[in-house]
């Protein structure tokens, strides 16, 4: 299984609070936002830099600044809950939206929207955001949608996933870097992650 698990103590702490069924929507959104910000820090650790000349009040010198365009692709709805956290770290990132929902019976992903910034087709870093990878169906569909548009250099950032889904994605898209906070045990019969955190979209938006 090829996936980077971010084990930072602060993330594990907030993830536990996120999982707790007693956490209400307001707090859920806040924890998700804080985790996303911490994740962004790790995910962007090796982003490309370029050297420039500057002048401090004391002397001319050189320094490094970001040299890579970043596009964020939240998978709606739940991925939207991770956007502000990432923007807190890279405020100039552009946003594409991938609208997918899982059919409750078949668990197959259904696409209802795809809009992307034109920068995504140029040299850029493209980060898909979705807190949950369960069967992997939505993640694979999202990757297919981006690949069809010839969008490359993709990272997929989730909060909770399961091994079976990671293996599927690794097999179909070996070049995509996967990042998560936890690989949980398995899925239940309804396709929910055990122990997971429930339905992320519903918990963010207070639906159901
Ligand atoms: C959730 C989640 C993922 C998907 C994961 O979205 O945010 O997109 O399920 O499940 P999968 O790996 O089995 O495809 P959902 O379809 O519930 O839509 P929502 O965010 O609008 O609630
Ligand atoms: N989608 C969710 O939001 N949660 C799960 O456990 C599985 C799919």
Automatic annotation (TrEMBL):
Known function: Catalyzes the conversion of uracil and 5-phospho-alpha-D-ribose 1-diphosphate (PRPP) to UMP and diphosphate.
The protein's required cofactors: Mg(2+)
Annotated cofactor note: Binds 1 Mg(2+) ion per subunit. The magnesium is bound as Mg-PRPP.
Listed EC numbers: 2.4.2.9
Residues that hold uracil according to the record: 193, 198-200
Record-linked InterPro entries: PRTase-like, PRTase_dom, Upp_B, UPRT, UPRTase/APRTase
BP terms from Gene Ontology: UMP salvage; uracil salvage
Naturally occurring in which organism (per UniProt): Candidatus Hepatoplasma crinochetorum Av
Family annotation (SUPFAM superfamilies): PRTase-like (SSF53271)
Family assignment from sequence similarity: Belongs to the UPRTase family.
A single GO molecular function term of this UniProt record: uracil phosphoribosyltransferase activity
GO cellular component: cytoplasm
Catalysed reactions, as listed in the record: UMP + diphosphate = 5-phospho-alpha-D-ribose 1-diphosphate + uracil
Keywords: Allosteric enzyme, Glycosyltransferase, GTP-binding, Magnesium, Nucleotide-binding, Transferase
Protein name: Uracil phosphoribosyltransferase
The organism's place on the tree of life at top rank: Bacteria
Pfam families membership: UPRTase
Span of domain Phosphoribosyltransferase: 6-207
Presence of keyword Glycosyltransferase: yes
